[in-house]
Design brief:
The chain is mainly alpha-helical. Helices cover 66% and strands 0% of the residues. The chain is built from 20 helices and no strands. The longest helix is centred in the N-terminal third of the chain and has 35 residues. The chain is elongated, with a radius of gyration of 37 Å.
């Protein structure tokens, strides 16, 4: 037994000597003193220390990647900043803009301030350009059934669309704290690229952006509207300035132009969102905006272009404070057209919507004037106007409001109904009039007979 153990030990030692011959590294490692990674003096060997060490290596790699990305961005931006009239160069510009948009979309790390500055200069040089004046016949052929206004597509839209997408992405990604507000209002420079300097979104940038609402291309106006919405919601310190600037555009349209200007409906749509956020009770400055801007917008002949957005804005005010309804109705009646039948049809619909939400006391103050106007519309020789005035009786909410005090105006309505049945040329209008007569007789048959006497 002892002999077998000795034999086993001998074989083991021989095998170890052979391994050392073929693996000198193993022999050196065994003979050398053990080496360990030690933390800096005063810091314990903890898991946090290892995480911090790994994080430093990762940050260094990211800085190198970020530097390479910035160089790539700068080369593309420089090419896209200049105009490219040649078709081949224009196609290459679109390709580079698409590449630039892809880099911005997929970028995980924030874009450096230096790159942002160059990017916003590129955006400004492409977007802020002289716009052709709107055609004088812009609104001459618009019918009430048209949902979209006649638009002139821009030849540059192929690359402008990508530039707007880039601007939208930048606004989403940019850190609000890094935006330096331009405190000095300065002069209003229109359609000229603003000197960006070290600022990104400045007052002059916003003013130039608002002028793009005058573009003939509906797609461009939609893009501008989306971006203005984003700026207003994100950069809260610009809200007061933006409201004032958009008000100035509307006042300029009302009092200083021949009412041939694009983008009024788009600006009113933005205002609709702003008004929707007003708190109750309304501030005096907001009521002034209603009286001095929104109400006078009922005066232009081409009101049909933006009437849908205008009605929404006015209705928001009346819904928030029903006491404003009487004043609004009175002022709209003051702007009633004499020969513009399309406009009459639109205003009848607006009055119907406002009366639904009006305060009862305010309604009584304008009821006589309101129904005198509706009676004239019922008797109108234009069948569209007469039919629209008769259709208001189908509105249950409207009827609920006016039926409480119908006695005060019953005679005015009955006179118009009887006149139509005798004299109106349109059979369709006569049929609608007969339906309204039946409704009124059911509402108060005795009063109807009294009015006929």
């Amino acid at each position: 037994m002892q002999r077998n153990n000795n034999l086993t030990l001998f074989k083991t030692s021989q095998l170890q000597l052979l391994d050392q011959k073929h693996n000198p590294t193993m022999l050196a490692q065994r003979n050398s003193p053990k080496t360990t990674v030690k933390p800096p003096a005063g810091k314990p060997t903890t898991l946090q220390f290892l995480f911090d060490l790994d994080s430093k290596c990762y940050t260094t790699q990211n800085k190198i990647k970020s530097s390479d990305r910035d160089e790539e961005l700068h080369s593309i931006i420089i090419y896209c900043t200049e105009s490219r009239p040649n078709d081949q160069e224009s196609a290459l510009k679109r390709l580079k803009l698409t590449q630039l948009l892809s880099i911005i979309k997929t970028s995980v790390t924030p874009v450096s301030d230096q790159t942002l500055d160059v990017l916003f200069k590129m955006v400004a040089s492409n977007l802020f350009r002289p716009l052709p004046p709107p055609p004088s016949t812009m609104c001459s052929a618009i019918s009430l059934e048209d949902d979209d206004v006649i638009t002139v597509p821009s030849a540059d839209w192929a690359y402008l669309q990508i530039v707007y997408d880039i601007l939208l992405r930048l606004i989403i990604k940019i850190d609000v704290k890094s935006v330096q507000e331009d405190k000095s209002v300065g002069s209003r420079v229109l359609n000229q690229g603003p000197a960006m300097g070290e600022h990104f979104i400045t007052r002059s940038f916003i003013l130039n952006l608002l002028t793009l609402f005058n573009s003939d291309d509906l797609r461009e106006r939609d893009a501008v509207k989306n971006i203005v919405h984003r700026i207003y919601s994100k950069f809260t310190f610009y809200r007061s300035f933006m409201r004032k600037s958009m008000t100035d555009v509307l006042l300029h349209f009302i009092y200083e132009t021949d009412h041939q200007q694009n983008g009024i409906g788009d600006i009113l749509e933005i205002w609709g969102s702003i008004i929707n956020g007003f708190t109750v009770p309304l501030k005096e400055q907001h009521k002034v905006f209603l009286y001095r801007v929104l109400i006078p917008l009922h005066k232009p002949k081409n009101m049909a272009v933006y009437h849908r957005q205008l009605v929404y804005c006015v209705s928001q005010f009346v819904q928030k404070e029903a006491e404003l309804g009487g004043v609004v109705v009175g002022k709209i009646l003051r702007y009633w057209p004499v020969t513009n039948c399309q406009k009459e049809v639109l205003l009848i619909g607006e009055l119907e919507e406002i009366v639904e939400n009006v305060d009862r006391r305010e309604y009584l103050m304008v009821a006589s004037r309101l129904w005198s106007r509706i009676a004239k519309c019922i008797k109108s020789n234009n069948s569209q106007v007469a039919e629209r005035a008769l259709y208001i009786w189908n509105n249950e909410q409207f009827m609920r409001v006016v039926s409480q005090d119908i006695e005060a105006v019953f005679s005015i309505v009955v006179e118009a109904i009887e006149t139509n049945l005798k004299l109106h040329w349109s059979k369709n209008v006569q049929q609608l009039t007969q339906n309204v007569k039946i409704l009124l007789q059911e509402l108060d048959p005795l009063l109807y007979k009294t009015c006929l006497a």
